[in-house]
Amino acid sequence: MKAKKSTNKIKITTENKCSFCTGSICCTYVTHHLDAPKSKSDFQQLLWQVSHENISIYKDDDGWTLLISGNCQHLQVNGDCGIYETRPEICREHTNDYCEYDAPSEDGFDLYFRNYEELLAYCRKRYKKWDEQFK
Length: 135
Ligand code: SF4
Ligand code: SF4
Description:
This protein is an alpha+beta fold and 135 residues long. The protein is built from four helices and four strands. A hairpin with a 2-residue loop joins strand 2 and strand 3 (63-69). It is elongated, with a radius of gyration of 18 Å. One iron/sulfur cluster binds next to loops.
């Protein structure tokens, strides 16, 4: 990633795209694969996790995923990577062919829970007697 530029009249290519990506979006979160929830107890676990700051949960073609928002400590103010030469493998493998710069990741989500309330609403819809477990 290079210092950011204006996109006025400049053709965006895979070579220069990262230099236009304000905030270097792919360096502002981590994900963790989750086993697909199958029971009320599983969803209770997810409700606990999504209740925390900077945590959301989504499901897409690859299954259920925990999304933790937060800048990488190596992300520089100008968008550069502070450890570019020795950056982790996952960073090296991330392609900008069609990335978060081109479309928000949410566009590919089948389900997206940004907070406790959204996941609770889903639980109540999925389990008609969801609230009875607390009586
Ligand atoms: S989100 Fe895409 S364009 Fe932005 S820094 Fe990452 S790879 Fe480059
Ligand atoms: S190590 Fe570098 S490339 Fe990887 S997430 Fe952090 S800033 Fe981005």
